[in-house]
Amino acid sequence: MKREKKPKNPAKRKRRLIALGIVLAVTLILLCLPWAVMTGTPGVIRLGEKYGSDARSTRFKAGERYFLGLGKIANALVPVPKNIPEAQAYQNKDFYAGSGDFRNTPGTGWRLGFASRSIVPEDVLEKDYYIGGNAVLFPRKIKRVIDDIKVRALALEDGGGSGITVFAAVDVIGLANSQVREIRALLAKAAPELSLSSVNVMATHAHSSIDTLGAWSASPGEILGNWVSLLFRKDVARPAMDPTYRAFLNETVVAAILDAVGAMEPGKLFYSQIGVDSTHDFYEKGDAAIGFDDETDEWDDSWTKKWIEWMASRPASELGLLDYVFAKRSPGESSSKLHKLRFVPTDSAARETVWINLWAHPYINGLKLKAQGDGSGLSGDFPYYMEEVFAQANANMFFSNGAINGIYPDRGAVGPVDWSEDAEGYLTYFDSATLESQAKEIGRDFASIALAMTMQKDEIEQNPLTKSEGRSHAYRALAKSFAQGGGVTETELPPLLNVRLQEIQVSESNPLLILMGKLRLAENTILNAGGSLKTLTEVGYMELGGLKFAMIPGEITPGLTNGKGDTIAKNAFSGQDFSGESLRAAVDGEGVLVLGLCNDEVGYIIPENDYCQFYWDADHYQELISPGREAAGEITGAFARLADQVPIFD
Predict the structure, then answer these.
(1) Looking at the predicted structure, is the pLDDT value of residue 28 above 60?
(2) Which of 103, 238, 384, 496 suits 524 as a labelling partner, its CA being 20 to 30 A distant?
């Protein structure tokens, strides 16, 4: 006898859904509780407690067990979507491996083209667009337009027959590799006749731009809706990014790239730079110069006076952006370098193009700080204002960011006085000046520094774009230092461009990012590797006129680039050295320029020896939005393998 099915009980089903929703919501709250406690509780690093002390280590490990335990509970309630492809069966599409075999013979000459286009949609204030880059419970709607956000494209070839290499830098928080591949496919369809060896799309990482990853656009209700959809349909209902804006952005990036290719013209390429790779090394050098020992001496006003005198004696080529950037993450390692590539067209009437690479978050206009700014304005942040200055100098500007894990511009640097002159005035400015004015002044200073670094004393003070009168205290000091030591020498680069990229699969072991991947709260390409998740991404190595570049798909710590900072045992949570190889070590100890957030944004890239998930420590929040402790070794290892493949030329 056939058994009759019981009639469905909608009320019972609804109660179950509500119960499951409550369980998931409570779990997520508990999962994120340490973050809330961390960011709201100063003094977690207790007075007199050393970085690697046993007491601190015990707290860290307890916090990590709490976080990972709750992560397992939350992930048990969220199934893997059925449409996530298998890692082993993934089919390679729209990937450019680079320019082929590396050459050591220069080509016939440089050709470069530049173009830019606005990426602000016409309905920006009519439709709901959200700011990307700031952790909020509910999405932060864009309410006004402060300035323009753009895509800047640069096309370059060396005349050696390897094809055109394209770079596009977009004023957004990040672009996932999935969208980069859509752009490449659209470009190939629009211009199949082009000989392109490499197409690379980077983000400037502006924290006051439209959310292009999706994580900052989802409301709690939408997240819950995706979870319910996963439970019953094994798929999610809501795409991470607005599909209409995604299509508009893709088309605009492609149009800018085609404009740049069409504008290519012959010329010469020059390089100059200021600053040091390791600010940690610089400070140790300063301590030694003034005779300060942090083990035996206690800092007081007399040491401050000696330090200021020593700093005043340093050349600008060494100081670089030291006064302008700071590191939130322990042990405070950053780079003060500003790199400048300058293309001079053969046609003297044509505009020069300047490529600036420095390492700092464009985060200022995205902050929400009482009367200083509400963080709801659309802005390209300081790169926009840099471009304004270069336009006045009759030059195009292409901006790329570098190793920016925990690195930020110091808003206090652009005040009228610094702490050594008038601490009260410095603090007053820091707390009262609008964020917009600070972003504008920092951008203006960065551009002026880039112009002044290759000028002599008289040129600096006679040029309205570089003179120090009426400028910030940090710029006045640097301009004076330039004048004392003379300008920085530019080096002409031979026309030789080699690029090689490699696809890799980065392990996801962070419970929070695994949840985000399952719920499709970000646009990253997620693969199913036998129950665990991986992120498909790319790593690249480039040699440009003798300079070495690392193309990194996220926000890497400066220590991983130079082998200092958090990769050294004494600075690390574990008390051990990083087990992998720094980017510098991979290229035989030479300097390496980093193109951060290049072809993807996988999150913060942190060495495994200084990785802990999770603990109450405000300077290490980055672990929350990092793929996991394996990611740094996988990414730097891929870069090292690419560098090893390059032949050694005599």
Answers:
(1) no
(2) 384
Q: Is the pLDDT assigned to residue 625 strictly greater than 60? A: yes
State the DSSP string of 460-499.
HHHSTTT--TT--HHHHHHHHHHHHH-PPPPEEEPS-EEE
Q: Are 520 and 133 in contact (CB under 8 A)?
A: no
Which residues touch 149 (CB under 8 Å, ≥6 apart)?
Answer: 118, 119, 120, 171, 172, 206, 209, 210, 378, 379, 380, 384
Question: Quick check: 632 and 605 in contact, CB under 8 A?
Answer: yes
Query: Cα–Cα–Cα angle for 200, 203, 209, nearest 5°?
Result: 145
Selection from 545, 641, 647, 551 nearest residue 605 by Cα: 551
Mean pLDDT of 294-322: 90
**Dist CA 640 CA 623 (whole Å):** 24
* Angstrom distance (rounded) from CA 642 to CA 242: 35
- CA-based nearest residue to 255, from 265, 263, 267: 263
Instruction: For the chain, give percent helix, strand, coil, nearest 5.
Output: 40, 20, 40
> What are the b/e assignments for 367-406, b being 16+ CB within 10 Å?
beeeebbebbbbbbbbbbbbbebbeebebbbbbbbbbbbb
Give the model's confidence band at 4: pLDDT under 50 very low, under 70 low, under 90 confident, else very high.
Answer: very low
Residue type, 201: V
**Partners of 151 in beta bridges:** 117, 170
Distance separating alpha carbons of residues 265 and 262, to the nearest angstrom: 9
Q: Which residue has the tokens 């800047």?
A: 152
Q: Is 183 exposed, middle or buried (0-12, 13-18, 19+ CB in 10 A)?
A: buried
Residue 565 DSSP class = G
**pTM value?**
0.91
**Higher-scoring residue by pLDDT: 154, 32:** 154
The residue count for the chain: 650
pLDDT for the residue 110: 98
Per-residue pLDDT for 494 more than 90? yes
| Distance separating alpha carbons of residues 122 and 563, to the nearest angstrom | 46
Token code pair at residue 470: 């009426």
DSSP string, 211-268: -SSSTTT--HHHHHHHHHHHHHHSS-SS-SS-HHHHHHHHHHHHHHHHHHHHT-EEEE
- Residue 648, classified by CB atoms within 10 Å of its CB into exposed (0-12), middle (13-18) or buried (19+), is exposed
For residues 637 and 138, the model is more confident at: 637
For every residue of 283-297, DSSP letters joined together read HHHHHHHHT--TTT-
CB distance 566 to 607 below 8 Å: yes
Residue from 520, 20, 517, 24 nearest 238 by CA: 520
Average pLDDT score over the chain:
88
Local structure of 576: helix, strand or coil:
coil
Please say if the pLDDT value at position 38 is more than 50. Answer: no
Provide mean pLDDT across the span 199-213. Answer: 97
Determine the Cα–Cα distance for residues 228 and 79; give it in Å rounded to an integer.
Answer: 10
| Tokens 């509970």 found at | 73
200 and 551 Cβ atoms separated by less than 8 Å? yes
- pLDDT digits 0-9 by tens, 534-583: 999 999 999 999 999 999 999 999 999 999 999 999 888 888 999 999 99
